[in-house]
Design goal:
The protein is mainly beta. Helices cover 0% and strands 52% of the residues. The strands form 2 sheets. Strands 2, 4, 5, 6, 9, 10 and 11 form a 7-stranded mixed β-sheet that branches. Strand 5 and strand 6 form a beta hairpin. The protein starts with a strand and ends with a strand. The model has no long low-confidence stretch (mean pLDDT 95).
């Protein structure tokens, strides 16, 4: 178990950028694959991005490919989500999560942050 906390959300204009951060408490951050999910009102939680334990592999949901980049700094117990060219449909609560396995399945993630709101205006 690891405790996660997201930050960096806010209100931006379409075409703008935000960088989300997720900091982990505890001593086992490097033992987890990390994922980003988002949930818009009335919709299911959606996979956004994932990064493996060392940061050497990443993958992204189709809707954000080419626009979002995730990275991590294990020395700082932090994972990042750089979001560029934001669109109104990116508006959602963004969640940081941790998993022991390499997966995009929500149930595979065993630790979750509280979420941070990203709102993109048109």
């Amino acid at each position: 178990q690891v405790q996660l906390a997201e930050s960096g959300g806010g209100l931006v204009q379409a075409g703008g950028s935000l960088r989300l951060s997720c900091t982990a408490s505890g001593r086992t951050f490097s033992s987890y694959n990390m994922g980003w999910f988002r949930q818009a009102p009335g919709k299911e939680r959606e996979f956004v991005a994932r990064i493996n334990k060392s940061g050497s592999y990443t993958s992204y949901g189709d809707s954000v490919k080419g626009r979002f980049t995730t990275s991590r700094d294990n020395a700082k117990n932090t994972v990042y989500l750089q979001m560029d060219n934001l669109k109104p449909e990116d508006t959602a609560v963004y969640f940081c999560s941790a998993a022991a396995v390499w997966t995009v399945i929500l149930s595979g993630y065993t630790s979750w942050g509280q979420g941070t709101q990203v709102t993109v205006s048109s």
